[in-house]
Model the fold of this input.
Amino acid sequence: MRFSNRLKHWYLQNKRDLPWRKAHEPYQIWLSEIILQQTRVEQGLPYYERFILAYPEVEDLAAAPQDEVLKLWQGLGYYSRARNLHETAKYVVKELGGKFPDTYKGLVQLKGVGDYTASAIASICFDEPVAVVDGNVYRVLSRVFGIDTPINSTAGKKEFKALAEELLDKEDPSTFNQALMEFGALHCKPQNPACEVCPFNDQCLALKENRVKELPVKLKKTKVRKRYFNYLVFDLDEEKTILEQRKGKGIWNGLYQFPLVETDSLVEQEQLVKTEAFETHLNGGKFSVELYNSEPVVHKLSHQHLFTRFWVVQADAAHSNSIALAGIKEYPVPVLIENFLKDYLPPAYK
Done:
């Protein structure tokens, strides 16, 4: 039996009932694929449902304020996805009349849409015979065909894309692509794949050669950078605090945070208050400082670990960025600060 026939037979018996599969509309498929980039379905599904409820059509998403979109995205991480999502929605509405491109070549030109996402939308919505290659696909193909070329190398990306194109069911690319991704997610898992009942266990080279745990091969990540964050949690008169919006191309662009003093290592109070950044935030006013967490919170991102301390600063000076403590939950913040607020805020403000 052909690879595609076995795969589709498994899919029709085992596929999950996911909301974006009920209608092959480009907006819904695009939204689901952007949310599910680097995110498991179990985690992403509630976000998809909230976005569809808030923005049923691409026009609704395009008209939303960015802060509102970022707040709805809060907790998913990789916030550039949310910003690109919003920008693309505005582009589709303003420049394309609310209609998504109906070809791979057109889709891949959209901001935040790469080869995988364009292939998924083009095949699922428009039956264009283009193969998808994501983490699940890499895993299935590397195991079944015994390929040890690193999946995050240029050579590996070309090799796996070519193989996926060769295997693709050109008559039904939508079902084939969804089946291949679903098979990797549910059956050929990273840990403990169900090899005993696998429809490919008679041809899987990784199983025959006892290399299931070794494949796929991935080149080692770049060195993790350590950063030391000191957040100044202002406790101002009239139950106010200070939030600032992050700017630039670094992490969490567009999200809000407490005033930040970044240092080269963990510092004590005496060192902190002498930094130029601390003095800038105080504007020369009177203050007192108390460390909220003696043990730093270690927040791990893909290429950096943030060692974070929160310092409660009592001050009576007015500040242009001050906001009511009761309204802080309306601002989109990194999950690092969201977790702090759950512990810090009085019950009435949570």
About this structure: The chain has 15 helices and nine strands. The mean pLDDT is 91. The longest strand covers residues 304-315. Residues 36 and 44 are 6 Å apart (CA to CA).
